[in-house]
Amino acid sequence: MNRLIKYSLLSSMLLTQVVDAKSIAIVGAKVHTMSSQGTVENATVLIKDGKIQRVMQGDAALAGYEVIDAKGKVVTPGLIGASTSLGLVDVGFSAGTNDSNSSLTSISKTGAAFDVSYAINPDSSLMAIARIEGVTSAATSMGRTGQLFNGQGALISLADSSNPVIQARGFISTRVGNSGADTVGGSRSVLWVSLEKALAEAKFAIGKSLTPSDEWHGELSRADIAALIPLVKGEIPLLVDARRAADIRQVIALKQRQPKLNIVITYATEGWRVAKELADNNISVILDPEANLPYGFDQLGSTLKNAGRLADAGIQVSIGMETHNIRLARQHAGNAVANGLRWEQGLAALTINVARLYGIDDQFGSLEAGKTADVVIWSGDPLEVTEAAELVLIAGESIDMQSRQSKLRDRYLQLQSAKPMQYIRP
To answer: Nearest to residue 90, comparing CAs of 364, 324, 419?
Structure first.
C-alpha cells in the first residue's frame, strides 16, 4: 500500500476514537518526554482537559479514558517552529498583502514598535501544512521592515482556533550581518552605533512616563521605547541574525556590556568558530543546519557539523528556521544528527530547547504533568524522513490530518481520462 495513503488511513482510524474526548490515554508507545523522566518504553500518556496528567510505564485502570493503542509507535511533544513567519504570509510574491514585510512609517523610527500579533491569520493554508507534520506551535515575526528591528514577534499555537496567539510581543529581532548593514546605513559602522543608541535610549527611559501628555525628547518614538524597555530589562529575548565569526564576536561583546540582555543568535553559520565564547556567555542559537555552502562573505565557514560542535560546547541549540517549509525542520534536525549532533539533542532542538528559549517551557516543549497536551504520535523515529506523524493533538484536541497539499495528493492519485482534472470538482 502506498505509504502516504497508509498514514492517512491510520490517522483516520485513530481520529474516530478521540473526537471530542476530554480524557485520553495513549498506551503502548515509546515516549520521549523531553523532561527529567527521559524516554519511557511501553508507556501510557494520560491527558485530561487539554493537559498532560501523567506519563507512566505500563498501563493501569483506564476507566473514563478514550484509549489510543500506540503500540510500536513513537510519541513526542509537539514540535515548535523556532523562527517563522507563519500566519503572516502565504505566497510572498502574490498580489495580496504580505504581513511579514513593511515599509517605512512615522510611527516607528527603528521598527521595534511593530506588533505582528495584530496580523496573524489562523486560516493561513500554511498552518495545516505544518501541523499535520507535527508542528503544534511556533514563534512568528516579520522578515523585513527596512529598519533596524523586525518588530515584536509573537508565539502562536497552530490549533484550528480563531485566537492562535499564545504570547504577543514575545521577542524582538534584528540583523547585524550583511543584510542588516545593507538596510541600516550600508555599513556595520552605522548599524552598530544605531543599535547601541536605541538600546541606551530604552534603558534611559525605564521608569519614565511615556504618555502623550508628557514631554519626550528622545530620538526614538514613544512606541519604539515602550517596545524596547522589556527587551533591555531582559524580560523578552533579542534575536540577532549574525553569521560570520566577526559579527558573532560583536554580539558577544554586546552581551558582556549589557548582561541583562537575553540574546539569542540566529543562523550563527560560523558559530562553531567561537563556540567556547558563546557557551561562556550563555548565548543560545537557532540554526539552519543545512547551511553548508559559502553563499556570502559572512558565511565562508559554513559546515553541516555546526550544530554538533555547538551542542558539544554546551550551547543550547534550536532548529526550525522556515515558514513555507517548517514541516522540514525534523529532516533538518535529522541531518544535523547525521553530522555529529546527538539524537536526543536533535529532538530537544525541535521541542524543549525552543520552549526554554522563549520562556514558555512551563507550558510547552515536554510531556510533563500540568503542561499543555501538544502531543504527536509518529509511525517511527521522527527524525527519519521515511516516518510520519499519524496523529497530532493540540491542547488535547485531535486535529484534522488534512491540508491543501494532502488534498491535492489525494485528488491526483486517481486520474480520470474523460475530462482534464481542472474540470472535476474535488
So the answer is: 324
Count of residues for the chain?
426
- Phi/psi at 24 (5° precision): -125, 140
Architecture of the domain spanning 3-76+388-413:
Roll (2.30)
**Model confidence pLDDT, tens digit, residues 253-272:** 999 999 999 999 999 999 99
SS3 of the chain: the string is: CCHHHHHHHHHHHHHHHHCCCCEEEEEEEEEECCCCCCEEEEEEEEEECCEEEEEEECCCCCCCCEEEECCCCEEEECEEEEEECCCCCCCCCCCCCCCCECCCECCECCCCCCEHHHCCCCCCHHHHHHHCCCEEEEEECCCECCCCEEEEEEEEECCCCCCCEEEEEEEEEEECCHHHHHHCCCCHHHHHHHHHHHHHHHHHHCCCCCCCCCCCCCCCCHHHHHHHHHHHCCCCCEEEEECCHHHHHHHHHHHHHCCCCCEEEEECCCHHHHHHHHHHCCCEEEECCCCCCCCCCCCCCCCCCHHHHHHHCCCCEEECECCCCHHHHHHHHHHHHHCCCCHHHHHHCCCHHHHHHCCCCCCCCCCCCCCECCEEEECCCCCCCCCCEEEEEECCEECCCCCHHHHHHHHHHCCCCCCCHHHCCC
- Compute the half-sphere exposure of residue 421: CA atoms within 13 Å on the CB side of its CA: 9
Closest of 263, 384, 266 to residue 334, by C-alpha: 384
Beta bridge partners, 139, equal 155
Instruction: Give the domain 79-364 fold.
Output: TIM Barrel (3.20.20)
Q: Domain locations in the chain?
A: 3-76+388-413, 79-364
* Residue pLDDT, tens place only, 128-142: 999 999 999 999 999
Compute the mean pLDDT over every residue in the chain, rounded to the nearest whole number. Answer: 91
Q: Is the dihedral of CA 405, 408, 414, 415 positive or negative?
A: negative
Residue 21 pLDDT: 52
Grid cell of 224 as nine digits = 519604539
Q: What is the pLDDT of residue 4?
A: 42
For residue 88 the three cell numbers come to 503572516
Residue 301 CB neighbour total at 10 angstroms: 16
Q: Estimate to the nearest angstrom the gap between the alpha carbon of 187 and the chain centroid.
A: 30
The answer for residues whose C-beta is within 8 angstroms of residue 179's C-beta and 6 or more apart is: 241
